[in-house]
Amino acid sequence: MKRCCSKQKRIGGAEANTAGEQQQLKITNVHGREILDSRGNPTVEVDVILADGSLGRAAVPSGASTGEREALELRDGDKTRYAGKGVRTAVKNINNEIGRAITGRDLTQRTLDETMLALDGTPTKSRLGANALLGISMAAARADAASQREPLYRHIGTLYGSGTFTLPVPMMNILNGGAHADTSVDFQEFMVMPVGVSSFSDALQAGAEIFHALRGILKSRGQSTGVGDEGGFAPNLKSNREAVEVVLEAVDKTGMTAGQNVFIALDVASSELWAGGGRYAFKKSGEPSRTSDQMVRLFEDWLREYPIISIEDGVAEGDWEGWKTLTRELGGRVQLVGDDVFVTNPEILKRGIGDGVGNALLVKLNQIGTVTETLDAVRIASQARYATIISHRSGETEDTTIADLAVGTAAGQIKTGSASRTDRVCKYNQLLRIEEELGGAARFAGRSAIRAS
Questions:
Q1: S-S: 135 plus which of 46, 305, 313, 377, CB 3.0-4.6 Å?
Q2: Strands 172-176, 189-193: parallel, antiparallel or unpaired by DSSP?
Q3: Is 364 a catalytic residue?
Q4: Residue 225: phi, psi to the nearest 5?
């Protein structure tokens, strides 16, 4: 198979081209299929085969709490099958129209993705489906890495244009609420971040031990120890504040010190609380509704009381002025992560950076729909000195691409759930393998990765 080989440079001991000089890949076969995700709903899996026989396989995740401006996940809508959630139409698009357009051509990752975007022709990938495009894009990246006989994280580093490989700090979600659990807790995720340890494996151990300590505390109080979509416990607590306090109690039980080597991170998912008319409704806990300014004051109070290092979606995606106020008031003290507000979209992110919205980007491949656009968003964030957090979705698979993405882009942080459910743990295990492979060259992001910390 003919490949471009000009101006190569050493990256971590492997020969690789820069982002502007991507290797070409000749796709000989594309095959999509319908599989099930971690919630038992259909999703797309794709195999891409290159001319030299290299195979790349990728599965596409799915979100429950989704931003309005996300790329469209194409579902069949046939209520007689999987309650309308089938993806046979997306699979058909892969195996027919898209497959015909890309098979037999010499393409780079960028030209592959741009070819599919032009073929779809819609702003949100609604004609062919973002799940169809992303499945092919991810599988092609894996096939190209296999063809070059290099790990995926190194290949992603080449596409991104980085020679730095960094193991991320895990944002371990150990208590679920909001749209991810049927409980009385409004906020969606209560996470621990072991930033004050020396390696990823130490951070993972700390997170797992806190998770098990929390199980013991909840069990002793007669609370449910069932888990939500992302593997965290989903107890019925009196308030959102109690959720923070029970997590801090679990940290203390492990012998670690909250505010020194472990911090708290929140995903408020405020778009789910937005009630219109400038107010946020706390329907699950029964707390009084709040305005944008009152949400900012709530977080300000919590920052004084608790060792919180990161707040995701503190106000709703449509509350742009609220975001500006939140960032102006608290952005110098805490990481403010934009998920629904940015939806991994480079153009929306540019606007947010210009308007002073947030100081960190949550990165979800399926929010935008291709590997190239995802890397573009990470690059824009990095250039603006925004932190980046690579993230899973609530509907996941055994695919571990996001682990390699976090290392290859040196993002510094990863959200991939709790220390339970194999669809979450498989990403952690992949990071352990990468750490082992890098050996003495393995660099752990630690506290330096956290914006405004």
A1: 46
A2: antiparallel
A3: yes
A4: -115, 20
∠ at Cα 39 (36, 41), nearest 5°? 45
Note whether 396 and 371 are within 8 A (CB).
no
Tell me which of 364, 415, 427, 435 is the catalytic residue: 364
The two structure tokens encoding residue 312: 């995701």
Q: Tens of pLDDT along 101-159?
A: 999 999 999 999 999 999 999 999 999 999 999 999 999 999 999 999 999 999 999 99
Contacts of 242 (CB under 8 A, 6+ apart): none
Q: Who contacts 319 (Cβ-Cβ below 8 Å, separation ≥6)?
A: 270, 274, 292
238 counts as catalytic? no
Q: Are 170 and 207 in contact (CB under 8 A)?
A: yes
Provide the whole-model pTM.
Answer: 0.93
User: Got the DSSP string for 224-279?
Assistant: ---B-TTS-B----S-HHHHHHHHHHHHHHTT--BTTTBEEEEE--GGGTEEETTE
Tokens of 262: 């472990």
How does pLDDT run across 81-98, given as a tens digit for each residue?
A: 999 999 999 999 999 999
Q: Does residue 33 come out as left (phi exceeding 0), alpha (psi in the -120 to 50 range) or beta?
A: beta
Rounded to whole angstroms, the Cα distance separating 364 from 229 reads 17
Other Cβ atoms within 10 Å of 421 Cβ, number: 17
Joined tokens for residue 25: 């890949």
> Which tokens sit at 292?
């944008």
Position 67 scores a pLDDT of 62
Phi/psi-derived region of residue 442, left when phi > 0, alpha when psi is between -120 and 50, beta in every other case: beta
Among 73, 189, 209, 230, the one annotated catalytic: 230
